[in-house]
Amino acid sequence: MSIRENVDLVRGKIRAAALAAGRDPDSITLVAATKVQSSDTIRDAIAAGITCCGENRVQEFTAHWSDGAYEGAKVHFIGHLQRNKVKYLVGKVDLIESVDKRSLLEEIDRRAQKLGLVQDILLEVNVAGELSKSGVAPEQLDELLTAADALPGVRVRGLMAIPPIAVSPGGNVEYFQRMHQLFIDIRGKMTDNRSCVDILSMGMSGDFEDAVACGATQVRVGTALFGARPPQRAQG
Q1: What is the torsional sign of CA 110, 200, 3, 223?
Q2: Is 4 exposed, middle or buried (0-12, 13-18, 19+ CB in 10 A)?
Q3: For 158-193, what is each residue's pLDDT tens digit?
Q4: Rounded CA Rg of the chain
Q5: What average pLDDT does the structure give for the chain?
Q6: For residues 1 and 88, what is the distance between their CA atoms, to the nearest angstrom?
Q7: Which domains does the chain have, with CATH numbers?
């Protein structure tokens, strides 16, 4: 199937899941996870109706940015982020979804203030407590939220999570429901009126319909749009 056909298929599934849950399908953003895709593939996806691309790696983002591949779409950074790479993103991406440490918050704030802007971010939550994944523990979310609320260069827009790979349909519903409750909770805790907490980013190719049913406002889909990722070249 072509990228356009895949985009239409995924959008149709999002629409069906939203309507079944009594939600407005237009309230859910489809983010195309463009990890390892070429600039031409990204352009094809945007031409097919994708309005937001999500990049996992800073090096790939900078290459595609320089190539003008994202023209006509927003860009989110959705991968693990190190402090020394923040400078390549602030002021260029529309949203940094993977903020999970105070030190990372402070570096984003420093860079944003230097540029005279406010950087939109999401706080990433390790909702299943997996040792192999980044993200703040749910019980430490309030502390990170308080730290973010005091920084003028960042604006918390909501939460992001990457639950375990579901081994069966509905396997991540408990985590999606937990994230939705955390999302509701933090909306009542923000004190800074600059903040507009309206994004709950969860759900990928294998479980985005369940995520929509549980309240996701944004799903990050790669394989269902582009097919299986090509083999990665060895680093060296």
Answers
A1: positive
A2: middle
A3: 999 999 887 778 889 999 999 999 999 988 776 654
A4: 17
A5: 93
A6: 35
A7: 3-226 (3.20.20.10)
